[in-house]
Specification:
With 116 residues, the chain is mainly alpha-helical. It folds into two domains: 32 residues, no CATH class; 83 residues. The chain is built from five helices and no strands. Helix 2 runs antiparallel to helix 3 and helix 3 packs antiparallel against helix 5. The protein is elongated, with a radius of gyration of 18 Å. It binds zinc ion (ZN). Zinc ion binds next to loops.
């Protein structure tokens, strides 16, 4: 069996108390997340992007990346199906990486256009 939180092979669902507690904390956070909130934020990001693109195309695209990255930073959650192939910890690391890359790309695009 593999630990649901860290992915290490162990004899139970979790390898120790810490992993079990962290997974429980994760499940509690996920249960509080409203899918509607996530989609509203995505919609706001797209709207702000579209409005900005009219005036400043590249800055609009930068805002889209930054907004998407920020949303993922607050909602770094994947589907239950994804958690059957990867541990909770790996999914969090993956989502944070995607989030930070997205924020950085957005910041670089905006910074580049403000400077040049
Ligand atoms: Zn573990």
């Amino acid at each position: 069996m593999k630990c649901r939180y860290c992915g290490k092979t162990c004899s139970a669902s979790y390898c120790n108390e810490i992993c079990s507690a962290k997974a429980e904390q994760y499940d509690r956070k996920v249960s509080k997340v409203k899918v509607s909130t996530f989609f509203i934020l995505i919609l706001v990001d797209i709207l702000v992007t579209l409005i900005t693109i009219i005036f400043a195309p590249y800055i609009g695209i930068g805002i889209m990346f930054m907004g998407f990255g920020l949303i993922l930073l607050f909602f770094p959650y994947v589907t239950e199906e994804t958690l059957t192939v990867m541990s909770i910890r790996s999914s969090l690391i993956l989502m944070r990486t995607v989030s930070l890359v997205s924020i950085s790309v957005g910041a670089i695009i905006i910074g580049w256009n403000l400077l040049t």
